[in-house]
Every structure is written in structure tokens, then in C-alpha cells.
Design goal:
By secondary structure, this protein is an all-alpha fold. Helices cover 66% and strands 0% of the residues.
């Protein structure tokens, strides 16, 4: 039975309550510093949604689809817990899933949220993915994610980070061959932080 079938039968309210409960319990564990426990709780919610067919990655989610947005939130929150545990591959997977659930399909603007309430989740997911992409050395993707994430959340630090990264990628600092990284006077003051 798909999520839409359950919605017609009134079963979606129960699923939404279970997902919300998993999110709240995961948030409590995350705030208490229990990243592994939070990861398990968010995962249990995601698994419930997948079993119920509530996570539709194939087409455009309906505007205001609260369950779809809740599943995206679970993915984004699980990514936050994974980020604190330095599980970069899982962060990229989960944030990409959250983004896929929230973008409008068929739009030329892939950075557009489904609805304004989803923009915060969408932006946070992109910023988390940007953090990992930067750590992995994928600076162009990191800059794009910082930019889109900052635009959707109003996060000025992420927007500034995107600008600095784009600037660094387009205007690399030229150092003499004798300079070693971080050991040359010409390099000082030109570190993009």
C-alpha cells in the first residue's frame, strides 16, 4: 500500500505521528550528545516511512505534503548526527536524500523548495553536505551547496563561505615553487577561512 493509498484510508495520520515521535526522540538524544542513539532513532523513523511507501523519490512531491517533509527532516537530522560522528559518506547520502525529497521536479531551478516551510530543512541539508564536500576536497560542489543552502536559510555565514570559495576557485593564489604550503610569507594573510 502506497502513502497515497494510506492517506485515502486515514492511515497517514498514524504514520505521521510515528515519524514525528521518532524525530522528537532523536532530537532529544542528539541534544544530549547521544549521536549513535539519535542515529538509530532517526533511522527507525526513516525505515517506517520507507516501509509505508511515504518517501517518494521518483516524482514531484505534492505541495504541503507533511509526511514527505517529515521524512526529509529525518534524513537531514540523521545527517547531522552522522556529521558529528565523522561519517562523511552517510552525511552525503542522507543530505542528498533530504534534498531529493524537497526539490521541485521538472523545474530548471533545482534549488527551489517545495514550500516555504521546507526551505529551512532543505537549506540545512545543503549546508551539512557542503561541510562534508569541503572536507573531502570537492570545493566546487561545496561552494554550490553553501550558496543554495545559505540562500534558502538566510544563513549569511554560508553565503559568505560560498563567495569565498568561488573566489578562491576562480582566482587561485600563485605561489613561488620554493614555497611550501603554509610555510611561506607570501601565503600569510591569503588563507580563505
Amino acid at each position: 500500500m502506497t502513502a497515497r493509498d494510506q492517506s485515502a484510508n486515514g492511515g497517514m495520520g498514524a504514520l505521521q505521528r510515528r515519524l514525528e515521535e521518532a524525530r522528537l526522540q532523536g532530537n532529544q538524544a542528539y541534544k544530549a550528545g547521544g549521536d549513535a542513539q539519535a542515529l538509530k532513532l532517526y533511522s527507525s523513523g526513516i525505515n517506517k516511512a520507507l516501509e509505508a511507501g511515504a518517501a517518494d523519490f521518483s516524482g514531484a512531491p505534492a505541495d504541503g505534503d507533511e509526511v514527505q517533509q517529515l521524512v526529509a527532516t529525518l534524513y537531514a537530522n540523521r545527517a547531522a548526527a552522522a556529521l558529528r560522528m565523522l561519517r562523511h559518506e552517510q552525511v552525503v547520502h542522507d543530505t542528498s536524500r533530504a534534498v531529493a525529497l524537497l526539490v521541485v521536479r521538472g523545474s530548471s531551478d533545482v534549488d527551489k523548495c517545495v514550500d516555504p516551510a521546507a526551505c529551512a530543512v532543505y537549506g540545512k541539508a545543503l549546508i551539512r553536505r557542503a561541510n562534508v564536500m569541503e572536507a573531502l576536497g570537492n570545493f566546487m560542489q561545496a561552494a554550490a551547496d553553501y550558496s543554495a543552502g545559505g540562500d534558502n536559510t538566510g544563513d549569511k555565514a554560508a553565503q559568505r563561505r560560498a563567495f569565498i570559495m568561488y573566489d578562491a576557485l576562480n582566482h587561485p593564489v600563485r605561489l613561488p615553487a620554493t614555497c611550501l604550503f603554509m610555510q611561506c610569507a607570501a601565503w600569510e594573510g591569503k588563507i580563505y577561512v
